[in-house]
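Researcher: For the record, we're logging two predictions in this thread. I'll number them. Prediction 1 follows.
Model: Prediction 1, sequence and structure:
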Amino acid sequence: MKKIISIILIVALVAAFTVTASAKGTVFSDVDESAWYYKDVTALASAGIIGGYSDGTFRPNGTVTNGEALKLILLASGYTAQSKTDSHWASGYRDLAVMHGIMTSADIELDAPITRLDVANLAANALGLRTATIKSPFIDTDDNAATVLFENGIITGSETSAGIVFNGADSLKRSEISAIIYRIINTNFDAHTGSEQPDAVAAANDSMTHILVSCSGYLNIRSGPSTDTDIVGRIYAGRTAELVSDASGWYKVNYGSVSGYVSADYCTPVDYAVEEPDYSGLRLDIVEYAKKFAGVSYVYGGASPSGFDCSGFVMYVMKNFGYDLGHSARAQYSSGTPISKSELKPGDLVFFSNSSTTWIGHVGIYIGDGLFIHASSGSAYCVTISELSSSWYTSHYIDACRIIND
């Protein structure tokens, strides 16, 4: 949680709920640790992104207004803070949304409660998530915005005996907007466009040194080697950038068309040999699909975009391609053919112990170049990309197996 909060602190958000903010770090009296939204609310409150009431409550079932939702979503999506353009405090955010086509009309009652469907469309437009590539998982709507947000792990809906419902006409709750904002901040896509940032690995050089972003969420690129300098770009979790030089705790990098500095605390230098992929379209598809969930939170027992544990993540990804695996690392190992580390291809599974013992306790998907993607319960506490050659994974590596029969 400390890692997650430290990344959220980078985000220049100001509390948008128009109430008196509680002290940072305060545990709200009406937000129990067992509540599904506990992590989202407490992390955002600790970062000063949302606030509670002067009586120490958060009122998670309270409604969210159009103005409040506009401000939170626009800021979380990478837009800058706006001054009011008329008498209403949120008028600047309304006008910004209209100018960028996030809203089609300025005719909106800013103090009225926003519905779940309206906030889905607002968030999808702000993030540039235009077209879903899956069928709607909801039994009560086939709305594209709701579907594309589900696909990207931003919303989850509610489980019922009949299936997943979205309840789009219901007013959005304060607990729900907290979860949405937390997931936007910690999801691996480029705000404003919805597309992944260009990966420097694709450069024409035969060999280059890169930095691999290992934090949860994203890392700011700054104009100089200091947090006092301007933010000129972002690198999302699991992405790489070309390493130009090392400057005393800061790396100078090139990332697409952006050049600047990133803190060395949240990334690792790696060497990549750039080669044409020697694996099939299926293996490539599995890797690219798995990467879509980088930054999704680790949840013990989780097996959906709202939260994964290690085997739940592998099970979810592989099921999308027709492979039914059990929800345990050891069961997944038994489902494949053991292979040596030298035989690894993208899409193969890698297994580790989670202690000094020799039994299997952790699993990930190999993605090539000595890297694997997994739901980590370590410091990242999310789906992240790690190096097989790092000391911890080298000492805990057990074996690999092949599920895909080429």
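Researcher: Logged. Prediction 2.
Model: Prediction 2, sequence and structure:
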Amino acid sequence: MKKNPTYRLILIWALASVVTLGAIAYQKLTGPTYPKREKVSINNKEYKLKFLRSHGGDDNAKIELDIDDAETNAKIFYKNYPEEKDKDWIVVDFVSSKKEDKNILVAELPHQKPAGKLMYFVEISNNSDVKLFFKEKPIIIRFKGDVPAWILVPHIIFMFFGMLIANAAGLFAVFNMSQFKLYTTITLILLFLGGMVLGPIVQKFAFLEYWAGVPFGWDLTDNKLLVAFIAWIVAFIANRKVERRYFTIAAAIITVIIFSIPHSMHGSELDRATGDITQGLILLF
């Protein structure tokens, strides 16, 4: 049966959207900056809790427990990360507060310099029932500077559509449709604007430096962007005069793999001994 070009277009954009949204969802579920979520049952009522792993701005990080129960108390235990073995945990009591006409429990972690990290766990008690969250493997929260919406929103939009168009370009190449050359060019432009232009500005606001990837450092987020950008430069050049679909297909595959790596993994980290910002990958070794 002869395939309808319209059907192909619908199929390509549907697949490109699914792959893009799937990669974003995977990043969100596995990334080190998204909140940890847990459930707790108190007096036969279940509460959904959210524990922050990233905080931007100049204020303290508020840890809010959505628990509306007068008999429930909670404490937060924290210390600097990387862990200082000779330092005791600092303990702060949660206090009752109002939010949207209901009671919640709130505790604050002290503000840290950009890329500074704290580790913490939480104790929730109700009469004789005590529950510990993340004591064996404390949560690590990273602080960063405030990134204005006027730069963050365009960055996110360009990167999202950059990945969407990259997937479409790869699929057009797989189906041997000439549009792949146009979308190869558009992908390169979007990655350049969103990643290589706006990305460093976002990084400067958040962590006080424009670029922490090669050749200046080993920040994984910056370096994976660099690899993807180079892949699309190669695909663009290879297809200028002669159609070489496999270069675009390879660039699309590389992009999917790279953008599936959790965002901010082994990212910028404050070295408390020197006061310098380095990369988590370096400190890991």
